[in-house]
Fold each of these.
Amino acid sequence: MNHPSPINPKPWSAYLLALAFACQATTDSDYDTTYVEEEPDPIYAEHVRTTGFQTPQKEMADFTLPPGFEVTLFASEPDISKPINIAFDDRGRLWVTQSGEYPIKAGPGEGKDRISILEDSNGDGKADIITHFAEDLNIPIGIIPVKDGAIGYSIPHVYRFYDRDGDGKSEAREVLIADFEHRDTHGMVNNLFRGLDGWIHASHGFSNISTVSGSDGDSITMTSGNTFRFRMDGSRVEKTTDGRINPFGSDLDEWGYHYSADCHTLPIYQLIWGGNYTQWGKKDPNMGFAPTMMDYGLNSTALSGLVYYTDNQFPEEYQHSFYSGDVVTCRISRSVMAFSGSTPKATRKRDFLVSKDPWFRPVDIKIGPDGAMYVADFYNPIIGHYEVPLDHPDRDRKSGRIWKITYKGKQREIRDWSKASMSELLKEMGSPILATRLASTDALVDYKGKGATSELKKLLQADPTSPHQRIQTLWALHRLQSLAPEELKSGLGHADPMVRVHAFRVFANLPEWDEVHRGWALAGLGDENPHVRRAAAEAINRHPHAAFYKALVEAHQLAPAEDTHLVYTLKMALFTHLGDPSLIRLAAEEMWTEEQAALIALVVSDTDSPEAGQYLLDYLRERKVPEDRWIGYIRSAARSVPPGQLPVVVELAIEKSGESNLASFKWALALQDGIQQRGMETPARLVSWIQDIGGQTLSGLESDLGRWSADMEEKYQFAASTAGRYRFTGHTGPLKQLVQSEPVPEALRGEAALALIRISPTAHMDFLSVQMNDSDQKTSFRQRMANTIGQSATPQARAILADGLKDAPMELQTSIAAQLARSEPGISILIERIRKGYAPARVLKTRNVEESFRNHANTLQRQSFESLTANLMPISEERERLISQRIQGYTVNEDALASGKQLFTENCALCHQVNNEGGMIGPQLDGVGNWGIQALATKIIDPNRNISENFRTYNIRLNNGEVKSGLFRREEGQVIVLADQSGKEFSIPKNEISEQTASTMTLMPDTFSETLDQDKFNSLMGYLLSVK
């Protein structure tokens, strides 16, 4: 892509000033109103923007801001390239990580990305001194300047960069935290910031699974979205929260709460230390996931950057607001919050900045030391990681801008904290501006060190010392390891609740507590202020002891249900305590009320120890258990009880199932799941009960078929699976009925067919052959039969499959070919039948067939593959033509929305969620209409074009020869859990797996190119485009 030459600087400055006023002149005056949904411009739906490159001046003219605000260009290409994260140092300079490599990482030692330092030396609002700090990096993202250099991430490590001579260039570096996984380059390690505690806090991005440790050797493991902190010297790493998808943006408020953006779930979370947050593949814990603070999204799943504005350069009505970057709809949104107890509740306001230039990509936002908002703009026609091929030629790799947004007429000089005197630093620790308080405290600790101790202690004794100054003094003394116990105690009892909250946060960071400390913590649980109670509970969570578990239970009883963050913090603290078997034993000896015992059972059910299992078993035998808790608790008890107590759990489940409204098979499944997770064989008594339930269910099929309903599916799924696993030779009749009954869902009919194969691979092959070749049946059902027949790796099965190729629909031929391609004998017969004209050679080029063929073929067979497919158009070109045809034939028909929604429900909703309805196997699709028809059509018709590592399927070969395919979800003890194409989870004991290989395909069916004709495509597309 060609870019214009640099602009003459003098006209450039005048042009910027004129544009700054032009931006405000076109805005609406009422920006403080609650957000009203608007129809988005279709241009934001394009994954590859069709508008052209614009110079910074022209892009700026397309910004809309509230009256009185102005935007100026702080830096742009060619001085910088593609900014990702920005941060400010103690001299007020802006540091920026930038990458022309993104999203494709360079090879080891081949990185050319860099970190640069930008400085506005003359105060004209534009960087005029640009120093490239490090220039051989590989997709650097997170950055935090520190004394004598910086800490930053570059694949694959977090580094400490040194600049000891102060020339702005790093002359040395060392690895602080090593070897983060980087299969996916979405977010990796991003948004580093220095916490009140002096540690560096960071976010761990999408998909990757990283096990890292500090120099102390104590490791943590993070899967996809997590947050963590580490000491500046790399001596220790600690996980602070677990879960979410791709966090990318962090900030603090005056209370010390940490707020975080998540690209794919919600734009703002107030994080709870140790909280367990929702994530793809995670099983819902019995005690629930950590709570959220908002019930709305921002019409996008690409939120990047988050600030909570606590400065005063903006007008009062724009202070104490959240600002979130949206790189898809090219805007910066604004939200405000109010507290209910300690729980925040966000409300969306009118968008703060909207750009008409769809290349505007606000990937990071920071508030500068002057109170202005700085926006890193990854200026690009493409921002999607997997929506567009990573190597797409239109990805811009040179252009990038950093914008500065200020409120007109309110300028503030930037301070150099590294040169500030002791008295200046102490004074500014009481500033009304949070960022100033934090910067002055950091500078005091870094540059004055222990020499500041006596002056800090004087501040604590002075009267009056402002609450803000007292808070920072407590933190500074703690970080200097000079905080006396009586000084901390004074903070814990201070009249101002915010001081008490921060004192408890300091308190939580002490390495050890004694009996006196525990008395302070217990007092905090009874504080009149909910923020203080919550801070005390969080501190207790980090210092478990026998003195606390009873007080936590009592505090939970008193906590208002609407204060969800306090309630969860108390539960989380209790969870941590009861994860200690010795504390469970103590808790078991207490005389609890029904309500208290129920809370302990709830929390214990999510822990895993013999003591936890025993407590839960006793609770189930002795207490009144809510009906909706039984199944989860039985599963937990079966997983955790001492081995000798397992028969007791089984008998209890059998007994209670007879008194319950819940179906017996659900109880049996819960027992089976728990036992498999512990890696044990299913006890004979349970096997007998499972067989009885399965046999009785199949015996009642005749009457059930006459009144079939959707809620019967799970029951018969269990029965069919049981029949196959335990080879019910006496129940083949009902199984065949299930296979042949069209009101029965196809997935269940397939399970019944598989049971027949397991019972006798030869006896039922002819029956299944008839089903596969029945042209009156839906093609999708016939495909299931082919896949089932393929589970029997016998000459008889291969012959039936080969015969079925002739005159079959292309989708069925593809399924048959995929089964034959799993072995050399099958490949030989497949090649033979293609040469005889039973199926076109094109079938060999479908992705699943080609992948399996290449994995199992010998040299001669590979040569045959090449000769048969030599003159075929590549599948990608064929699909591209079909996509173009479907888009050209698309017509909007409001009457077809209902049928489109029905198609979505039948084909997509098992895995995808819209408006909180549907499955959570694949990405949620709120706002998917903003993608536009091109992107949606590509994803539907060619789903394997560009696969996220998180949605790659795995082929699992079992010890008995069967092959299972599915999307990996999680591990549960001694089993792995996957999801199939119907969106249902299934588990496989690890000891039954002989081979596991990653596929080149996603779980999403690759057959919509065949099954969606133009009319169905129009209906489905019309519905999807309406979801905004």
Amino acid sequence: MMRHSLIELRLDPEYPADRIDYILSDGGIETILTIEDLAQEKAIGVVNVICVDLQAGEIALESTQRLDRHLVCTTERDLSYVIYTSGSTGRPKGVEIEHRSSTNYIQVVNESVYQIQPHDRVYQGFSIAFDASVEEVWCTFAAGATLVVGSVEQTRSGVDLAQFLTQQQVTVLSCVPTLLAMMEVEVPTIRLLILGGEQCPQELISRWCNPQRRVLNTYGPTEATVVSTYQECHPDRVITIGKALPTYYVYILDEDFQLCPPGVEGEIYIGGICLARGYVGRPDLTAEKFINLDESKSMRIIPNRLYKTGDLGSWNDDGEIQFLGRIDGQVKLRGFRIELSEIESVIMQCAGVSAAVVAVKKVANIDRLIAYLVPKQSLAELDLGGIYETMRSRLPAYMVPTSLEILASLPTLPSGKVDRKSLPDPQNIGVNFQSSNGRQATNETESKIAFIWSEILGISDISIDADFFQELGGHSLLAAIVISKLRENPQFQDLAVLDIYQHPTVAKLATALADRQQHPTSTQHGETRERPTAKAHPSGHVWTILGIYVLYFIYSTPIVLPFSVFDILYDDGWNKYAALALSGIVLLSIQPSLLLISIGLKWLTIGKYKAGSYPLWGNYYWRFWFMQQVHKLVSTEYLAGSPLLNTYYCLLGVKLGQNVYLGGIELVAADLITIGENTSINDGASLVGYEIVDGRLNIGNITIGRDCFVGSNTMLGLHTQLVDRSRIDDLSYLGNGLNIPAGEAWIGSPAKLDPNTSSQIDELLTPVPKCGNLLKLGYLIGSIAVWLVPFISAIPGFLLWQELLKELEIDELLLPAAILGSFSFVGIFCLQILLYKWILLGRIKPGNYPVYSSFGLRKWWIDRLMSMSLDMMPTLYSTLYLLPWLRMLGAKIGARTEISTATNITPDLLSIGSESFIADTVSLGAAKVDRGWMELAPTRIGSQTFVGNGALIPAHSTIADNSLIGCLSIPPVGDTPMQPDTAWLGSPAIYIPHREVIDSYEEAQTYKPPRYLYAIRLAIEFLRVTLPGSIHFIVLFTLEVGLTVIADANSSWEWDLAIWAAVFLWFPFCYFLFTALSTFFVIGLKWSIVGRYRSGTIPLWNSFIWRTELITGLYEAIIVPGFLFFLLGTPFAPMLLRLLGMKIGRNVYIETTDFTEFDLITIDDNVILDRDSTLQTHLFEDRVMKLGKLHLYPRAQVGSWGMILYDTVLEQDVLIQPMSLVMKGEKLPPATTWQGIPVTRSYD
């Protein structure tokens, strides 16, 4: 071969014929050396087949002397051998190794590391098709040592191999750790033990190391000629892959090809004379894997041609490489990254285990961790329960396999490595190693539950003591499916998803059910009924249309009037800037005027609110509806937290004591609300005093005593009372008719006594700081001045409009002018908040501050601006443009984090790690106000953490890495820090052992996209940010043109005031007309760029996501405030939503706008969606948008702040109580009532 420059390509006789044929064809083989039996068995079709057994005689006649050097035609750059390794395409790829690489390796490894001597006896056990055989054969020959060739059977049998090695006096053994683990018998003759090919467990080193034996752990890909690094192993040292061989270069680089410092994880790269030429016939793959760094990136890296291994590693303090697994081979299960070798290492330390391997197998469409064991002697000696308990004590729950499978031996590849793809399907899931030892059902209830579990989980013979999550592989979605299936049996209609979390075994669930049936709730009943409904009378439509006309007048006045005043003054010859100044004064006067008008309208329209039950869409309802909409329009949120709000509510009829703090609260039935002195009602609390249920408007009183506390995002039902010094904490719901006794603290939805709660504000902070007259004046000025910020932001765009469209009359520039005006508005608005924040507050430090103080006033004003940013430029949120702005405000936010419409942010105290996701309407670290003091504390959220829609993260919270806080939930409380890799749901939070995870997408689609996707997304999100403002700009322009036409049409009137009276009577109608046109424009965009929404999963970095977010942004910024808002609570709202794709029946009551994927929602006749309820047709866990359908059958009802997740069915007459969460995949049976987070059956 050397004489004729032939290339060696080695084939394993055990390869299937198809693989041999492929390699021979791909490698362009012309001649093959084999034996007759193999040639016939494999049907080798190469032209020149030399069967060495048939030609043994001729071969024997050849000279045994080595060739003279002048007869060798081979050069060092010629190919020495080709080895085919596994390929990602399903076909192997040929690695081309040159002579210089192989001879260099044999020389340096033998002289510097192995030091094989002529008297050594070296075992040859690797397949010749694996490059480790190069080491065995040629290092032995180079040293003049003896090669001891073993059989395939011996290599696969640990016991037989040990005996063979001892008999043959083998001194050098090279093998994979799996084979060594199967050798229970000591081989005293071995002086050099070389391990490689897979990660080495620590216990093997402890077992095989002794003073007379060297043990080496080696590492190296075929592409870098056999072995690249090595470590001298000792029992008291952590196993690494060591350092590079002489003439080899090994680097650990980050994604930008920069050197990683010690301790920092990166990818392992190898360079030097060892590198392969490339891959046979694959220049594309060669260019991908063998990279050439340019000079700018390789100043500290020599040589600049490197092999990209795809392995992770880091340098330790000793200058050795810690191997961290494959980049593309790490197992990701239910969102967790798992190193299988760690599990295998734990199992190998258990008694009776000879070898172990862990793999992921799909069973009943569920990915599960399966452990395969080879016993040392027999199955009887394995304590499977003990092995399981060891794993549970040493490993996190998500790393504990769901089955232990016993094998006589592990399947292996020709390289000796374990062939994970050939591992058999599991047979013993949930059976073999349960602590119960497989106890079966003992009664009919257990049998029924076990049958459903088996059917859904795809597991037979489930033990009644097997844990649904820890042992059977269940997760959150499967829990909902199992419970929904069980509910089809009337015996199990009361079961809730929460039950399976609290009672995760068949036995515990059956016991809990039996106990519940023996001790039923006093109000429990088995009867079902059809819920009453309501139908709108045609006469009510007249009042609705009149009410909408007045509402449009109130809504449009602050938008249109200031700019109309400017036009009038400017046309009359006023100086441009003087006209702008007067327009600003008009704007500042409008807001107080609207507040006074709303007070007058309340007393004129309603008088005093009275407790009672009134027909939906009846006469009283229409008056109530009108006043409720008026209160929403007058922007009381910009008075929140100030004494001005107290004054306003007192004028409406609320009975307020002294020193009451009112945050940004919801309050409607004013005359029925009583709040005692020194009480604090925090941001987001709901004291509306009404509900819509069973076709009725129910109104009731709410009484809160003195020195009470109501937490953020907390709701008080009708006829509720907080007695003096009582408390109800964040994200809680106090149901109708309930009282909290004096001095007690309640929490949760539904709220219950919480004996562990104590005040977060020290009692020494009393007495309550009062608000002096000077501060009251400051609040008055601040509440007016806050409106200057949007006015100033609009001036450049408005002046551009005047210049281009009115003075130069270049109408074709309307759209560019609108886009520029919108862009300047957003930019100037953000810049103003940034400047005012740093000028007025600087960097905020944690601590307790008086609410009514100079700092409190300044903090209040900046908080109002942050709240206004969500109203004025909502489409900035959820985009890549938001994060830089929040960082400039002081927030510490890691790379690739996504933040949606988060509220109550104190930027200086907010810290979010990299690659986290904050969903819509999440409250992030709101200041807690109690007895006149506000507490500001850090809020820390780790990396790769998901916070669900409507969640509340209190100040002081620390959310661990890779964790999940569910929708409408709070973090766990207590002295024990939250652990990483955990999921929590509810208020108070409960631990979710396993959840459904979508991890089938590449990181380039979820966490680490290529740069070109950033460019596309930024372009689409630029439209998302600027298009709503552009549309508003065009509406204002066309509206002014329309009003001018109206004024001109009435110019014959002698009295100017009459002309402008006509204009103002027309402009609500005109504004309605133009906003309607804008609405239909957005509807058209929805159907053209998104089309019809369908169920499925879509990764974050996909253009569909940005297109649908564009439509959602336009819906929320154009359709909702300009059109849909005025229709809420009327029979007209469903008409509009049908145009967007929702399927809605007759007589449906809708008082929410929280819809996104409209086509996935089906609402049947007489359904009620109460105030701010949510039909959540998607979630963004794991950076994947999961979309699913929702179906509400006739007369189903969702209470205020109720949230229904996707893939859910509410049967007819189902009632979901306020602040409740229906889990995805649930199906709630007819005529039942549910409440809580997540929901449980209610009989109230």
